[in-house]
Amino acid sequence: MTNEADSSALRKIDLMIMGAGPAGARAALRAKASGLRVVLVDENNDAGGQVWRPLPDGFSRLSGVASSAEARDGDALRLELRKAGVVCLFGHKVWNIGSDLRTDVISPEGSVSWLPSALLVATGTTERVIPFTGWTAPGVMGLAAATILLKSQNMLPGRSTLVAGNGPLLLAVANGILKAGGQVAAVIDLASRTDWMLTLPALKARPDLLWQGLRWQANLRLAGVPVLYRHGIDSVVSTPQGFDAHVKPVDSSGAPLSGAARVFSVDCVTVGHGLVPGTDVTRLLRARHRYAAESGGWIAESDEMGRTSVKGLYIAGDGAGVAGAAAAGAHGELAALACANDLGRISTEHYSRERTALLSQRRKPALFGRAMAGLMALREGAVAAIKPETIVCRCEDVTRAEIDAAAHEGARDLNQLKAWTRCGMGPCQGRTCSDVAGALLAIHVGSREDVGCFTGRAPLRPVSLAEVAGQYTYADIPIPKAAPL
Ligand SMILES: Cc1cc2nc3c(=O)[nH]c(=O)nc-3n(C[C@H](O)[C@H](O)[C@H](O)COP(=O)(O)OP(=O)(O)OC[C@H]3O[C@@H](n4cnc5c(N)ncnc54)[C@H](O)[C@@H]3O)c2cc1C
After folding, report:
1. Cβ(96) – ligand 1 distance below 6 Å
2. Which of these, 369, 347, 363, lies nearest to 304 by C-alpha position?
């Protein structure tokens, strides 16, 4: 076991990159080419992140998914990393970062620590689900979770699936299910047709992706899948065959309108209301943050190169604000370039030339990605409509009524709410509930800025004491000298 006092056992490097999605992997390639001693760490078994998700060992892709552009892009990236000889620690989860950037990692062999001069956080996002009656039932899952089943578990989420929420993952998941041979009962979208049309000018920045979206919509029409715009899930009730999902029309804020619900009988409901940037590391290191609804929620303040308010700490990709996979790669490279410059490893000319090229490379995909992020932004009316008895924090079973009661009793920010109710105190450390819990508290308190975010705490991932302590005997524990009498 290593601790801060025992720094001789730390492995010293220039740059530690956390997360091997498009942002982290491209950053690693750029850092390596700039001569940095770089290590890329990810808890997955290979690079690719959420979008180019690697397969577990021994798995093969579903026939409809194998030939996809995403699968090819992921394979190409993994090959490039191997060819470049980047040091990659896959199957390793980072559970703690010290204020000196010491990175504590649980590897399959035990606990290891690294001491980098700089840390680049490229840990992506967490899916947001706005709770409704029945959302915690087995068989109701996130849209992003459904992409994981399709892409890396070789499984359909259900035989007959209702796909609901908002944003482009609706189309991606519904098409993935059809392609893999499943049935989609309907697509339920909080956004209106007009909301989609308004994104068109920005979507033209990436005609290839726009074309893909149009193809997805055409496929749904061909398969006879109804698409209900300006609708949301009101409740999901278990039946002997699966679920009855009750769907209602909503207004532009996502609040349900009066009127009869339509009922879909299915055996799976997959629902997602956007992505929330992962800020657990930047909060742990006490970087400055700001609330940016259009980027997914709270994000660490950073410049266009990913430098945060903490020296040596950089961020890139969707964790810095949702802008999509296509923009994440160039963002990662920008952050690695900034790091190489700040550590004095590249010339000023090289830095300015490459910076200009990468910024221009990122502009169009980021325009596209931000338009998509806008469609995924939190709809306050849907939050306000959560019923009192509905669980919001699923780790600790905290309901909306308990959050409201804590606010009435005087809880004024998320940390007070946590102390009052245990909301956000479970194994996920608030990753699943913090955005919605913050929005609920803000209804009483005023603004999201007033409510703030949870203070970052280790462990970043659930770890056992045995994993952290590793192999030792009591004789290894240093006994301090007794103080003189
Ligand atoms: C579950 C999920 C599924 C998605 N599916 C799609 C999709 O099908 N299509 C699409 O266009 N977009 C999808 N998205 C959005 C997509 O993830 C992003 O646009 C894109 O992948 C962002 O790239 P990134 O490099 O910023 O982060 P990511 O690709 O999310 O990569 C972050 C990486 O960090 C690693 N990581 C995080 N914390 C730790 C830790 N403590 N220790 C070790 N490793 C860690 C993760 O394992 C992950 O590999 C999905 C998002 C989510 C959350």
Report:
1. no
2. 363
Looking at residue 466, what is its pLDDT? 85
The finding on whether 333 has its CB within 6 A of some atom of ligand 1 is no
Whether the Cβ atoms of residue 42 and residue 22 lie closer than 8 Å to each other: no
**pTM: predicted TM-score of the whole model, two decimal places:** 0.93
Task: Please check whether the two domains, 129-273 and 386-451, share a CATH topology.
Answer: no
Q: Are 120 and 316 in contact (CB under 8 A)?
A: yes
Tokens 């908002």 belong to residue: 166
- Would you say the CB of residue 53 lies under 6 angstroms from ligand 1? no
Tokens representing 103 are 């990175």
- Given CA atoms 250, 254, 256, 260 in this order, what sign does their dihedral have? positive
Three state DSSP letters for 364-430? HHHHHHHHHHHHCCCCHHHHHCCCCCCEEECCCCEEHHHHHHHHHHCCCCHHHHHHHHCCCCCCCCC
Q: How sure is the predictor about 152, in pLDDT bands with cuts at 50, 70 and 90?
A: confident
How many beta carbons lie within 10 A of that of residue 411, not counting itself? 23
Domain ranges of the chain: 7-126+276-375, 129-273, 386-451
CATH superfamily of 386-451: BFD-like [2Fe-2S]-binding domain (1.10.10.1100)
First to last CA, the chain: 32
Q: What is the pLDDT of residue 1?
A: 34
Hunting for tokens 């690294």 — which residue is that? 114
> Phi/psi at 55 (nearest 5 deg)?
-85, 145
**Ligand 1 site, residue 23, Cβ cutoff 6 A:** yes
Q: Is residue 43 within 8 Å of 19, Cβ to Cβ?
A: no
Question: How far, in Å, from the CA of 258 to the mean position of ligand 1?
Answer: 37
* Cβ pair 397, 188 in contact under 8 A: no
| 129-273: in CATH 3.40.50.1820 | no
Q: Which residues are paired to 307 by β-bridges?
A: 314
